[in-house]
Automatic annotation (TrEMBL):
This is Helicase ATP-binding domain-containing protein. PANTHER family: UVRABC SYSTEM PROTEIN B. It comes from marine sediment metagenome. GO terms for molecular function: ATP binding; ATP hydrolysis activity; DNA binding. One of its GO terms (biological process) is nucleotide-excision repair. Residues 25-106 form the Helicase ATP-binding domain. Gene3D superfamilies: P-loop containing nucleotide triphosphate hydrolases (3.40.50.300). InterPro entries: Helicase/UvrB_N, Helicase_ATP-bd, P-loop_NTPase, UvrB. Pfam families: ResIII. One of its GO terms (cellular component) is excinuclease repair complex.
């Protein structure tokens, strides 16, 4: 697998470098869970792409809806044109096994 290398005409600005530094430091310390908060358009995806480039680890990005998942996949494909960026959508809401009983969900 080729190294993760961002292809972009832009660099991080504003709070993005500090956010990326803190996320990378958290990964180095073994933190299992971290959250990146920001308003729409603040560059969260670009910040995460920079974290991926810095840590050089395959990364799973999960979204709560299909529209955002498609947008994220598209942006990551642009940032990492030389790496595999895959997009998967679960159709669980359309298919439920016969043995599935919703009231047993926790």
């Amino acid at each position: 697998m080729p190294n993760f290398k961002i292809v972009s005409d832009f660099g991080m600005t504003g709070d993005q470098p500090q956010a990326a530094d803190k996320l990378v430091a958290g990964l180095s310390k073994g933190f299992e869970h971290q959250t990146l908060l920001g308003v729409t358009g603040s560059g969260k995806t670009f910040t995460m792409a920079n974290v991926v480039e810095r840590v050089q680890r395959p990364t799973l990005v999960i979204s709560h809806n299909k529209t955002l998942a498609a947008q994220l996949a598209s942006e990551f494909k642009e940032f990492f044109p030389n790496n595999a960026v895959e997009y998967f959508v679960s159709y669980y809401d359309y298919y439920q096994p016969e043995a599935y009983i919703p009231r047993t969900d926790l």
